[in-house]
Write the structure tokens for this entry.
Amino acid sequence: MGIIVPAQIVQLNLSPGGIPKRAIGEAIVTSAGIVGDSWAHPNIHGGRNQALLLIAAEGIDELIGQGFSLFYGALGENLTTRGIDRREMRVGQRYRAGEVFLELTKLRAPCATLNVYPGIQAAIYDPDVKAGNSSSPRWGLGGFYARVLKGGTIRQHDTIILVDQVV
């Protein structure tokens, strides 16, 4: 039997607004998100139910394999994770990442900000994803928004584990 490697935060990211977000080693997280992070369009992004954006590194790697010139943080995610299957992620799941507890609140819908990567919206979003069909091959490629249930410090390489499922 092989060694099971826990899921982890491979990169933490922030920006003063817009994409890409730049990597940081450690962050303080509050109910409003990562301290120092902001959004280019706060009337659309951010807020308590969209305080953090999580995207699986495996999904970004998949998009890179499709020819998109991406890197971790390029899609505006705050937490780039490795080891959580994006196809298994669901709204209502609760995770612990470092000292932080968070709950997935919604799939990220594509927005005009992503148009800097021509064709990316069709690659991450389709009618099945829009309808909530997790069997879509694009499920979770755009990431999931989360609310912060308990703030604290989070660091690059902290583990992230599923602790609860709220339905």
